[in-house]
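Journal club prep — side note

Before the paper discussion, L.F. wants everyone to see what a predicted structure for a comparable chain looks like in token form. Sequence:
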Amino acid sequence: MTPRLAIADICVGFGGVRAVEHLSITVAPGEIRGLIGPNGAGKTTVINAITGVVPAQSGAILLDGRAISGLPAHVISRMGVGRTFQHVEAFGELTVLENVLVGAGRAAAPRLLSYALSLPSARASEASLRKEALAALGAFDLLHVQNERASGLPFGLLKRMDLARSMVASPKLLLMDEPTSGMSESEADSAIAAARHLAERHGTTLLVVEHNMRVMMSLAQRISVVQFGSLIAEGTPAEIQSDRTVIEAYLGEEVIDAAH
């Protein structure tokens, strides 16, 4: 089976400093993969390299067997790669529903073109997009704030809106950077359950960077661990929790206890 994502021996540097060093990770279609490591380990840099925000100096990144290294970010996005951000990039003057409709629209350019040209299918397309957006809002328990401006929302709700906006586009691959930061434990549990459900429903592959180990251990099917930009371990959550190298480098005994 062709991997959904293949990172093959990539190196990424900034001003002579290597942020990612000969990293290789393979993620299967439909898999939920965790990516963890200490602060500064290169996790967000990996996401930025996949999405075309920063270039890889060497190696290759493939989506469904097709090289995407060096392609512009907007081209990679159109190929089915989505992402969420540590710090939400919201359209503050738009409502929550309108922000999520932006996400739905990214996956529906032909339908939006029909709307712009006032073709007969336009009204049905608009209704379909709205239905998809409302379903995503419902999944993340946001229907009660759908008409509120994004600028007035607390950070936890903005993070859930960002998840809904990203998931509604049904990307092939969704890169989630700290998806539960700023959420309470109950909010995090609900958001992750919704993300898992929608990913399974749409066949979306998830690559998740997350510092909340309780969330990560319950969400990911496999976890890749990086330190100083290099892969130091990979395995199931149970294997990672018992890996002495990972415990010493990152998790620590107290974090392992908290994850249970």
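L.F.'s comment for the group: The longest strand covers residues 17-27. Keep this in mind when we get to the figures.
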